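Practice problem: predict the structure.
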Amino acid sequence: MKYVKYVDVTRAMFPDQPPYQWTENVSAPWTPIVKPLTESRVALISSGGVYRRDQPPFKPDKNDLTFREIPADTDVRELRISHDYYDHSDAERDVNCVFPIERMRELAAEGFIGGLSEAHFTFMGRIFRKTGLLNEMIPGLIARLKALGVDLAFLVPA
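Answer:
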């Protein structure tokens, strides 16, 4: 398998732009799990651009700072993908590649986790507006997670 040197590729694609200031998280707080998984309510969060067909798709360009709530009981056949920056042909065959809702349901049914949040969340990756992400989207997402009584979030990058 040949690996893509993402930073080098990005710089080559945009030679007229100043070098992008990549974020390096060196002080992310460690938050220990405070209750057993078997008692925890879990939410799924994906950057795969997944949405329900009755919701508006994500903007096809970068920097869409919106997110979609996907009710926990959504039939996967109702899900679509709106993201132009990765090959989602496999995910279109099985959305669990980028939004593993059926696998999470199985974990809840087995008792491995206490249960699922009433809603799960998706957004479109490729957000370069770090300030907007930190000050707009993330606080709104955190507020929804708290309102839903979520104990843990399972993050799935696309």
